[in-house]
Amino acid sequence: RNRTDVKDEL
Amino acid sequence: MNIFRLTGDLSHLAAIIILLLKIWKSRSCAGISGKSQVLFALVFTTRYLDLLTSFISLYNTTMKVIYIGCSYATVYLIYMKLKATYDGNHDTFRVEFLIVPVGGLAFLVNHDFSPLEILWTFSIYLESVAILPQLFMISKTGEAETITTHYLFFLGLYRALYLINWIWRFYFEGFFDMIAIVAGVVQTILYCDFFYLYVTKVLKGKKLSLPA
Fold first, then answer.
1. In a domain, B77, yes or no
2. Does B68 reside within a domain?
3. What are the residues whose beta carbons fall under 8 Å from the beta carbon of B20, sequence distance 6 or more?
4. Which domain, by its residues, includes B69?
5. How many structural domains is chain B composed of?
6. Would residue B210 count as lying in a domain?
7. Nearest chain A CA: its distance from B60 CA (Å)
8. Which residues of A touch B60 (CB under 8 A)?
9. Residue B201 per-residue DSSP state
10. Taking CB atoms and an 8 Å limit, are A2 and B5 in contact across chains?
């Protein structure tokens, strides 16, 4: 999972 | 945050505001696909449920609230207040052909099988095709008001800028989200035909009419 857990994008 | 993402968000905000003002000021939603606007309201609703669970920044929260508020206001104007001006005969795209496959795909391809993540994934996939009813309606009516083309331009530009944002974030932060990137590429590709017409016609002062 290369995604940060927190979705900081809209 | 980088300049591409910020410009992208502002472009998205501009599109949403342009549409809402166009409908509100002209008291008419002629040429606007109510179905696409319902899909966008669904996109924001399923994507921004984390408003209730986590706080990221004032900017993040403010923009989410504005997006949700404006999209519901737009749907309200189209289907209730200005219903008489809604051109249902040309807004005939079968949205179930979008929602069902997108819903299924969100269950099959996601980062995590949790409710919030499935809904976010559904929202990302749905956003990439949510403009299809609007583009389909323009192809049926054969034309679009100039203000509507500006709305579509900023809406298409926003995700194109996000693509650059993702290149930037991969290079500088090693961050990448394959689901968002693939859906974003599909979404931007769907606008290519419109972008061509916008640049070759609307920017030259002509009206956007099909066949090109």
1. yes
2. yes
3. B70, B73, B74, B77
4. 3-202
5. 1
6. no
7. 7
8. 8, 10
9. T
10. no
